[in-house]
Amino acid sequence: MKKTRHVIQGIFLVLILLGVYGLGRNMELWCPFGGVECLSLFIHDGKMMCALAASNFFILGAVLLLTLVLKRAFCGYMCPLGALAEGMRCLSKKFKIKQVEPSPKVDRVLSLTKYVILVLVLVGSFKATELIFRDVDPCFAMLGYSTNEEVAWSSFVFLGIFIGSALFISMPFCRWFCPFAAVLNLFSRVGLTRIHRNTETCIDCGKCTKACPMQIDVAKCQTVTAARCITCGECVTACPVQQTPTLAWRFLNGKSVVQAHRWIAAAIVLTVVLAVAASQTVNLPTFNHTRDITRPTTVEQCTLKVQGVECSGSARQLIYFLDRDDLYAVGGYLNIKTSPGSGFVDVTLTYDPSQTDPQALTEALVEPYYDTIEARWRQSPFEIEGYDPLAGL
């Protein structure tokens, strides 16, 4: 099972790094914690923060569903930081680096830190309407290369601290400081699949406890209910009583799950497929901007197929071009609603038909704009299906 988990971890880590550094894709769009950070702003204003989109909500929902069934399997199989921490743990074992482990009391106190961090992140991000904690986010140091935003040196410092500490302490960030772990713990505590220990066949060797990367005292549990369990199965593998298994996976306290690693792998694949399918088929508007002007008696709507609206940050450029003050200025638009994504996406515009029309709105979005403040031309990042700006030349 350990080998299967490492293979899955490696695949996810390679795909993420390939997407960021090889293909230049914004992989933040698939960060489930992004959905957590944006949820309150989305409910309050109908918007998301820069670099994020509806896909964050879909992968968040899929991961939470996975957690309800398999506890924190996301941390043990899919998370890039979890993969790095696991790699450091394996190196530590290989080179026999002495591990530091705080007392159970200190461990419990440190475990509360992630909840404090979660509150700070949620409150701070909501008030600022942006991801203000990127500068100290070790994950952003890995993913920020393709977001067209400067990655602060401090995030690399925290990534280095994260990697270095994982050599001497087993999974410290995952256990104590990860704010997403705080969210997952709420769902993991009622995980439907758990490890059960047969007290009649157990020889009390303690090897299961020593093998646990999350420092759960498995040897003293009849059922592992700890929310921090990452479903790695290392305790099951380490148990010397294999002929009549002392440790076994059970679903809803039923019969033991045979070849659990295959079921876990299948569940993870299903999770990803569901999230991707939902992002491609469900139109969830995550950018909703209404102008602060008096609404006229008569309004109309038009929907344009626009390319270049890949995230909330690029969606804000729609406002910039519609608020222009040159030849292509439009005064009658009232609302913009869209769901950012790759390729052509629907952008629904509500407007005053007495002041503008779909053709004028189209031209405003696509034509170059002269910025009088910076004294330079700004090329539009958008392309609208069916419209050729050079057709009239």
What secondary-structure arrangement, pairings included, does this model have?
Elements: H1 2-22, H2 32-45, H3 54-70, H4 73-77, H5 80-94, H6 104-111, H7 113-128, H8 138-143, H9 153-165, H10 172-177, H11 179-188, E1 193-197, H12 207-211, H13 234-238, E2 247-251, H14 260-281, E3 287-290, E4 300-307, H15 312-322, E5 333-338, E6 344-351, H16 358-366, E7 369-371, E8 376-378, E9 383-384
Antiparallel strand pairs: 1-2, 3-5, 4-6, 4-9, 5-6, 7-8
* Topology pattern, helix = H, strand = E: HHHHHHHHHHHEHHEHEEHEEHEEE
Please report the number of helical segments: 16
N-to-C terminal Cα separation, in Å?
A: 65 Å
**Beta-strand proportion:** 5-15%
| Structural class assignment | alpha+beta
Gyration radius over CA: 25 Å
List low-confidence stretches. Answer: none
Number of strands: 9
For the residues shown, what is the average pLDDT?
92
Q: For the largest beta sheet, what order do the strands appear in spatially? A: 3-5-6-4-9
Shape: elongated
Largest sheet data: 5 strands, antiparallel
Q: Helical content, roughly?
A: 40-55%
